[in-house]
Design a protein that fits this description.
- The structure is a single chain.
- The protein has 284 residues and is an alpha+beta fold.
- It has four helices and ten strands.
- A hairpin with a 5-residue loop joins strand 5 and strand 6 (150-165).
- It is globular.
C-alpha cells in the first residue's frame, strides 16, 4: 500500500484558476461604484474609504443582531439596523496593547511584513452650521490641541455604507465611503454647535492607517462631556485609490494596474477581518 502522505499537488480548480472571492468582490464593487459615481463637488474633494469596528444592533430590541447565518456575511444596504462603534475603555486598552506589541514586533528582522509606524496625536474638532440652509453637513474645523494650529477645515459627505455581520466574533464591521470637501477661507461665526477632542493612536502600515481614538464630545457648557472609544481602518492615499479605481477593468491598461484596485481592497478587507477577529468582549 502506498504511503498516503505522498500526495500529488492539487490544482486550484478544474480550470487551473481560483474562482473570484465573492465576498471581497462585493466590497470592491460597492467601493468602486461609490467612487465612480460620486458627486462633483469641486476640486480638492478627497475620497475616504474606511472600515469601523463595532456592533450591529436591532433597533427594536437594542440588542446585537441574531441572524440565521454561520459565518461573516455582507448585509443588504436596506437592512434596517443600528451600528454602534463605541467600545469600552477595557476594549480600547486591549487593542492598544495588541497594536503596540505588533508595532514592536514589526521592527524585527524576521517579521514577515514591512514595519508599522506609530504616532500619537491630539486634535480638537469644532463643528459649525453651514451658511447654506439647504446644506445638511456641518463644517468641521480641526486644530492641533497643543499648538492651536488649524489642521483642516472641511465638510464630510456620506456616500454609502456596507455592513458586515460576524456571528463567530464579538464584533461586526462597517465599510463607509465618504467625500471630504475642504472649506477655504472659513472664519468661525461664533461658538461651535459642539466640540470633540480626539486622543488618537495612529498606526500606519503600507497603504493603510489604523486609528484607535478616545473621543470626548461636549455639546454645551452645562452638559457633562461624553467619552467614547473607536477603532477604524482607512485607506491612506486617496490619489492611489482613485487611480486604481479608474484602471479597474480597463483592457488598455497593464494587467497589474487593472488588478491593483481589487488587490488594494483585498488587503483592506484582510486587515479589517484581523481587527475584528482580535476583538474581546466590551462593546456598548
Amino acid at each position: 500500500m502506498s504511503n498516503p502522505a505522498n500526495l500529488p499537488p492539487l490544482s486550484v480548480s478544474i480550470l487551473g484558476v481560483e474562482p473570484l472571492d465573492e465576498f471581497i468582490g462585493e466590497i470592491a464593487d460597492f467601493v468602486h461604484h461609490m467612487i465612480m459615481n460620486r458627486p462633483d463637488v469641486g476640486p480638492g474633494a478627497r475620497v475616504e474609504v474606511e472600515a469601523k469596528v463595532g456592533v450591529l444592533k436591532d433597533k427594536a430590541s437594542n440588542t446585537r443582531l441574531m441572524l440565521p447565518v454561520l459565518v461573516e456575511t455582507i448585509l443588504a444596504p436596506d437592512f434596517d439596523l443600528r451600528f454602534e462603534t463605541n467600545m469600552s475603555a477595557a476594549q480600547h486598552r486591549h487593542y492598544n496593547t495588541l497594536l503596540n506589541h505588533l508595532q514592536q514586533l514589526s521592527l524585527g528582522p524576521t517579521h514577515p511584513t514591512s514595519p508599522l509606524s506609530y504616532k500619537h496625536v491630539k486634535l480638537v474638532d469644532s463643528f459649525y452650521a453651514s451658511d447654506n440652509p439647504r446644506d445638511r453637513e456641518k463644517i468641521r474645523l480641526t486644530r492641533d490641541e497643543k499648538t492651536g494650529t488649524v489642521v483642516e477645515v472641511m465638510t464630510k459627505i456620506r456616500l454609502g455604507d456596507l455592513n458586515i455581520y460576524c456571528p463567530k466574533r464579538t464584533a461586526d464591521w462597517r465599510v463607509s465611503v465618504n467625500l471630504e470637501v475642504p472649506v477655504p477661507g472659513f472664519h468661525p461665526p461664533g461658538s461651535p454647535t459642539f466640540t470633540r477632542k480626539k486622543d488618537r493612536m495612529c498606526y500606519s502600515h503600507e497603504e493603510f492607517n489604523i486609528d484607535l481614538t478616545q473621543v470626548t464630545t461636549t455639546t454645551s457648557p452645562n452638559s457633562p462631556p461624553e467619552v467614547t472609544h473607536e477603532l477604524e481602518l482607512e485607506i491612506a492615499r486617496p490619489p492611489l485609490l482613485l487611480f486604481t479605481a479608474s484602471k479597474r477593468g480597463d483592457m488598455n491598461a497593464p494587467e497589474h494596474e487593472r488588478n491593483a484596485f481589487d488587490e488594494l481592497i483585498r488587503s483592506f478587507v484582510n486587515n479589517a477581518r484581523i481587527l475584528v477577529k482580535n476583538a474581546s468582549d466590551g462593546w456598548h
